[in-house]
Amino acid sequence: MKKIKRILVAPLDWGLGHATRCIPIINELLRRDVDVIIAADHRPLDLLKKEFPHLTHVRFPGYVVQYIENGNLGWAIIKQLPDILRGFKEEHRRLEELIVQYDIDAVISDSRFGVYSKKIPSIFLIHQLTILLPPNLQWAQESVARVNRFFINRFYECWIPDVADENNLAGILSHSPSLPNNAYYIGPLSRLKRREKQKIDFDVLVVLSGPEPQRTVFEEIIIEQLKQTSCRALLVRGVPERNTRIKLTDTITAVSSLSTEELSKAIAASSIILSRPGYSTIMDLSFVGANAIFVPTPQQTEQEYLAKNLKEKKICYSESQTEFDLMRSLESAKDYTGFPMIHNDPPRRATLQYRIDNLLMEMDKRT
After folding, report:
1. Residue 284 and residue 233: Cα distance in Å, rounded?
2. What is the value of pTM for the model shown?
């Protein structure tokens, strides 16, 4: 009897975006009757348990970066590099244990550098081939790029969730001058379902995510400003470990999290989305053709670049968190086009399907 293929999927736990963009990959694997094991921690684990309650879930601790409310994030990460590198080694050791314990045939790691093995095909999912550093750390840019390529080259393949041409979403982040030899563009990934625009129930849909304490800081800013308006708003707090729905005022409702189906419906029923410009969020909103206001996480250069890039293209308006004004943003956003639905579903899925088929063939060769 032919052995059922078993693949472990391990997203990074810095925010929810790495977990949400693994959802379409997991769905493609399940369509091929692959036995998927989800290895995650904290909120990503809680979210994926809700999305796939029938799958096996393993708590897989990662390396925790201490984000600071005020100060230079770049320097904070550099100071924590020894701990991060130790984290790589620890998750590599833990993966080797899981391979034996669960008889794993392949692994897909979303941005977890230590989750690879020489024993089985290991896939690395990443959109940030170019890691942007703040201005005061530009001197280390090339060194960081070399280290990034070194870790990526350990994997069997590197999957980039973007397109190779000028219609790309991530700009220079996903289009490094020196592309790794094992890199393949698989097209943008989205867990959402396209829906026709329906009756508008919400003037603003707020989707919160990202690491603490900044997630909470931004939430407090938004709630305070929303209460000063008559806007009908739904606030998705991005805390899937809870299960709450609270009426903050007659016009503002807060929920802890939404399923894929629920979020797709909420976006279709909203005039505009207010969120962080995390890359997974950008892929989602591009897929459904939504308009958005973006507020980057302070000191997070990737989000600052993405927000600036989309603003310059007149696609989505953005403001900094320290200067954010809700009413001004809503008015300014009227001059921006929002995302066109340029990524049709069959072509978007085809590149991902091809890489998955190639992975399954490689697994057959090694058995």
Report:
1. 20
2. 0.91
Q: DSSP secondary-structure letter at 316?
A: S
Which of 293, 296, 302 has the alpha carbon at shortest distance from 127?
Answer: 302
Locate 41 and state its tokens.
């921690």
Task: Return d(Cα 218, Cα 214) in angstroms, integer.
Answer: 6
Ranges assigned E (strand) in 61-148: 106-110, 122-125
In the chain, where the domains are located: 6-188+345-366, 202-335
Intrachain domains 6-188+345-366 and 202-335 with the same fold: yes
pLDDT in tens, 38-96: 999 999 999 999 999 999 999 998 766 555 555 555 556 666 677 777 888 999 999 99
Is residue 208 helix, strand or coil? coil
Mean pLDDT rounded to a whole number for the chain: 90
pLDDT higher than 60, residue 342: no
- End-to-end CA distance of the chain, in Å? 13
Contact of 338 with 200, CB cutoff 8 Å: no
- Taking only the tens place, the pLDDT of each residue in 102-143 is 999 999 999 999 999 999 999 999 999 988 877 777 777 778
Band the pLDDT of 155: cuts 50, 70, 90: very high
Query: Which residues pair with residue 184 across a beta bridge?
Result: 159
Nearest-Å Rg of the Cα atoms of the chain is 20
d(CA 163, CA 271): 28
**Is the distance from CB of 240 to CB of 258 less than 8 angstroms?**
no
Contact 28, 125 (CB under 8 A): no
Q: In Å, how far are 110, 301, 306 from 22, measured between CA atoms?
A: 8, 23, 20
User: What topology does CATH give the domain 6-188+345-366?
Assistant: Rossmann fold (3.40.50)
pLDDT in tens, 262-275: 999 999 999 999 99
- CATH class held by domain 202-335: alpha beta
Q: How far lies 267's CA from each of 10, 143, 236, in Å?
A: 27, 41, 11
Residues in the chain: 367
AA letter at 31: R
